[in-house]
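User: Before I run my own analysis I want an independent prediction to cross-check against. Here's the chain; please return only the structure tokens and, at the end, one sentence I can use as a sanity check.
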Amino acid sequence: MHNGFKSLKEVFKRERSLAGIREIVDSSDVVVDFYKIFPNLEKVAIPQNCEKKVLKLKVENPSWRNELRFMESEMIEKINNHFNEKRINQIRLVG
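Assistant: Structure tokens:
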């Protein structure tokens, strides 16, 4: 590649003015990849959205909601490890 040119990927990762777009893409990746990370939760939880590093999961069953509350720190660690960066800080469970 010519020295004066940068790849789109490089520009997207480094350009400060694109920080907001990067955050939106990173957040949506958490929702999209949720079942890849937790295939066993496919019938239990539905990822709703991820904003400001808070993942919102819809869990209808109160027993499962309680169980997932106990697993929150493990789930956060697993998600962040999947992406090799800190994508979320908290999981909010809703009924």
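Sanity check: The domain at 8-94 is CATH 3.30.300 (GMP Synthetase; Chain A, domain 3).
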